[in-house]
From TrEMBL:
InterPro entries referenced in this protein's UniProt entry, alphabetically: N-FG_amidohydro, UCP029730
Chain coiled-coil ranges: none
GO MF entries: hydrolase activity
Name of the protein: N-formylglutamate amidohydrolase
Top-rank taxon, per record: Bacteria
Keywords: Hydrolase
Pfam families: FGase
Taxonomic classification: Bacteria, Pseudomonadati, Pseudomonadota, Alphaproteobacteria, Rhodobacterales
Amino acid sequence: MTEACHIHGETRPGRWLVTVDHATNRVPDWVGGGSLGIAPEDMARHIAWDPGALEVARHLAEALDSPLIWSDFSRLVIDPNRGEDDPTLVMQLYDGTIIPANRHIPPPAVAERLARLYRPYHDALARLAARRADTVICAIHSFTPCLRGRPPRPWQVGVLHSPRDTRLALPLIAALRAAGLCVGDNEPYAGHLRGDSIDRHALDTGRQNVLIELRNDLIVTESGQAQWAEVLAPILRASLAAAETVTA
């Protein structure tokens, strides 16, 4: 456990590694005295974190008998699911909200956030991923049902994947659809960004991987969070078996 992240179930024997890049909306005291200058209601929105994702991931990691790692800082402080050279690493405007503390942030302040939050999280994630040769990374995120001024998003769950590795994602999409779910194939976002968490810890290392996006209005309650983990765990296991049968 560090300021940057937490690990649960590190000694679990399962081959999965469940990750939550945007688990909390915490702003450390040393960043603007614990405030980015936006209203509490904005800090509670999806722009600051992925509501419900951590709780789903806790249940899922337990069901898969595998470790869980999550970041403990708001994506608005610094986004661990971006490359260090990505222009959206420290967001200045997100879904209609200006982030005052980030508008004119000097390079030394970005460097401090990288050193104290971003890099320790990725160092810990890399260490966990390397604990066994056949690690499979499952990243859990959540998305808002509707961005401001945009049409509603119909998907219950999205599966994001890169053309560099679709081994697990494609059978997972098929299995989720067979279960009667409305599934986004690279929706509500397309693929992955160079330097993001999956790119860094899975695609660049050849590890099987998948990024799951859950619509956050479906995982507001504890029962909804547990239910989604209960749905996902056996489908993930079956999809991994199908992926490895194809590539065997």
